[in-house]
Write a structure and sequence with these properties.
The protein is an alpha/beta fold. The longest helix has 17 residues. The two termini are about 25 Å apart.
Length: about 270
């Protein structure tokens, strides 16, 4: 573990016994700062030690920021040969790792983060990966969890550099506002790369009707998107540090994610 590892967000304590710990042996893993439009932004990265031009996966956080779970996901990807970069996409709005309460995180930070800022920061992370020589710009993928699952759909419709995206239980529709003018259902016909969506049948925050509308929208527009539903899983089923972790769904989803990235030229 790097000496400055933050552990798990206070708002999710105590962590479950099912928590997975992936070591740094054989990896380069640390916090960096990379240039964005108004300065620089922190990000956690992990990659195989001594490698260059790795296939690159941008990892988009849940509402709890770049805490130990997201860092561990990056290290898991690095063990599969990827450069994984997780930008701190809330850095301008506040530090969720200092907050103890989910409602405070949502109201004080997450609700104030504009989609346009997020998409631009991800563009800048992809540019940094390529310019540093660590990443191969021709092999760029993205995966996101919860809040980041919604972002995965949006980013797949945003630019043309992405080869594939994987969304873990990201919200698909909602009210539009100035910060969030469009949701995944609104951009279903504009996807520029294949998207895999991984969803839980018992997710109380994402109704099955919403998932069916998204399936219908991508089918009608002829886009390459697949949504896998795990009937017994709830929201956050990949988050091994939380009580809602569903090992079977998490492991199957992880396999599907790796296969998806490989199938579409990221690996």
């Amino acid at each position: 573990m790097p000496h400055h590892a933050p552990g798990y967000a206070p708002a999710v304590q105590p962590v479950s016994e099912t928590t997975i710990h992936t070591g740094v042996e054989g990896l380069s893993a640390d916090v960096i700062r990379y240039p964005v439009s108004d300065g620089d932004l922190p990000a956690y990265y992990a990659m195989p030690f001594g490698r260059e031009r790795c296939p690159t996966v941008l990892v988009v956080q849940e509402i709890f920021g770049i805490h130990e779970y997201i860092r561990d996901v990056c290290r898991r990807l690095a063990r599969r040969g990827y450069l994984a970069i997780a930008p701190e996409l809330y850095a301008r709005q506040g530090d969720v790792l200092r907050m103890n309460d989910r409602q405070e995180i949502m109201s004080q930070v997450v609700s104030r983060v504009p989609d346009a800022q997020v998409l631009a920061d991800l563009d800048a992370a992809a540019d940094y990966a390529a310019r540093s020589g660590w990443g191969d710009p021709a092999r760029l993928g993205l995966t996101g969890f919860c809040w980041g699952g919604r972002v995965a759909w949006l980013y797949a419709a945003h630019g043309t550099g992405l080869k594939a995206a994987v969304a873990w239980y990201g919200r698909l529709e909602g009210a539009a506002d100035d910060l969030r003018p469009r949701h995944p259902l609104d951009i279903a016909g504009r996807l520029n790369c294949p998207v895999l969506g991984l969803y839980g049948g018992r997710d109380e925050s994402i109704p099955l009707s919403s998932i069916e509308r998204m399936r219908a929208a991508v089918r009608e527009t002829g886009k390459n998107a697949e949504i896998v539903l795990y009937p017994e899983a709830g929201h956050g089923f990949h988050a091994d540090y939380r009580p809602g972790y569903n090992r079977n769904a998490a492991e199957d989803g992880w396999r599907r994610m790796l296969d998806w990235l490989k199938s579409y030229g990221v690996a």
